[in-house]
Amino acid sequence: MSEKRVEPSSAPVQQHMGLKASRAISNTAIYVLLVIISVIWLIPFVCIVLQSFRVESTWQVGYVIPQKWGLDNYRNLLQTDFTRWYLNTFIIALITAVLQTVIVLCMSYTLSRFRFKMRGPLMRFMLILGMFPGMLTMIILYRVLKDLGMTQENAVPGLILVYIASSGMGYYVSKGFFDTIPKSLDEAARVDGATRLQVLYKIILPLSKPIVIYTILTAFMGPWGDFVFARYISFGASAGKNVAVGLYDWLSKDQINKSYTMFCAGGVLVALPVTILFMCLQRYYVEGVTGGAVKG
Amino acid sequence: MASVKLTDVKKVYDNNVTAVHDFNLEIHDKEFVVFVGPSGCGKSTTLRMIAGLEDISGGTVEIDGVVVNDLQPKDRDIAMVFQNYALYPHMTVYDNIAFSLRLKHMPEDEIYERVTGAAEILGITQYLTRKPRALSGGQRQRVAIGRAMVRNSKVFLMDEPLSNLDAKLRNQMRAEIILLRKKLDTTFVYVTHDQTEAMTLGDRIVIMRDGYIEQVGTPTEVFEQPHNTFVAGFIGAPMMNMVPAQLKREGRQITVSLLGAEIPVTGDKLEELLAKDVHSGEILLGVRPEHMMLVHEAGPDTIAATLEVNEMMGSELHMHVIAPDETRLIVRVPTVNLTTEQRERLVYGATVHLTFEPKVMHFFDKEKGTNLIYG
Fold it and tell me: What is the CATH number of domain B240-365?
């Protein structure tokens, strides 16, 4: 009697074990692959970090691990214009992040909730306009900013203007997210006595945390790492450079030998705040990117 | 507390679809009015126009004598309960109910008093610290009602508040709304597609179809004196039987012949028909399933039909029968009136004999569908 009972019940257990084993194998394979990819990905970063602590020479060398370690490069960095560039970049990125987030979220909410006559054509127009590379506007933008006195050493306000000018066009992801929030919440709040603006910041935004953080992050990242616009609008004036432009100039033929390790130290300092931001907020970032499709 | 007056109210959408045609209605102070009709009849649109959530394409909406056409919802002093509850998911139940009061900058201790008071009436005091997602459907609906209650607004609007609930809970909440109405004693406008809700809740019912009002009346009026075949069919479940019939008038005598039966019209119905000066001709005769009687022997005033389906509802049978000319009828028979032997005889294919009294007959124009007496 007892034997009979064991037989049928052991079959599913075996099957279960087989399933477990095959899942373990495929998981291991996936993890091995991911580790290999991460290592390849990390090599350049590790090299740069190691170079930034090398003090025996300032030029490029054929080995990776420094012979003599120290913080000289970071100390020297503070004696140069780097602090100015860093501050420039930070101010630009911060102001852009705030203004661009406000503009993008208002734009997305408007396009998600309001129905006005030119809504469809406007959205199509922005979609098509967005397909042209931003570089096309380079010459005319430079001309306009020069006339306004916002180039070279005054490049900071000029750059802020450039970054936020067309930011409303980046509404897609957040509009997609807002579309998934039931309209009846807006209606309930409006009946409860809220204005449209109150609906946005008391109801919609608290429900859209991932998308708000995603918007802030992308708005901050754009100017933080920008090179092309920053380079031609600062146009050689050190006071108007951002870190990317300033550091790049250290790689020119006559500079590279005395500032290569300092360049690496600068690179590390540039990467640091963004890395920390991402590590803290990556959960929201992923939710934000995928949130437009499926509501979290 | 206020009256609501709709004058020639119209709603035309951008794609030129007219959802509501010239809607005229005066809702009195403290009255409970129910808009009922099939989906797409414009009942919700009309309610949303009163709330200010839809633009009004034509006509005027007045609340307490003030035209509110161009006022924002927040300035109309209305409260609304939505079909999907529309609770703010990121706020606790307390904050949800307090939301409108905080927008009005009411002192916190007064807010506390009102919120806990409403929660007590609705029996949700123990859930005040929870988020809406931790509540069941019925509890969520109570919170939504609570949110509308604390505002003490002039008009209380409800847009199919019970249709997301299961049948048992719906019955319970319906009874609670009746009690709530007594407590609040304010003007209610309630939208539903469920005629039972309309009949049980409303002081007056507005029956709508395709953007038009078909009839406005008390539950008794719309049930006993339907103006047309649509209202007759919509109110009452199962729906009223409609049978093509011949009306014969000879002087002051009127008889109706249908499905082989000759039924003389007597009493009030005869007087009313004579007063309307009806003539002989083709009509549609309406008889509600509960007004048909099962008789055990054929007679001059009985209809013979074949039993097709027999639905046992517990206290009554719903018999679906088919007459020789393919007309289908439904008959409600209380089981208490049947002996076991009689019940056993009511099987598929059995011939049954039906009759009804003249006072329960409804006479409709065959072409227009209007009631010959009340239409």
Answer: 2.40.50.140
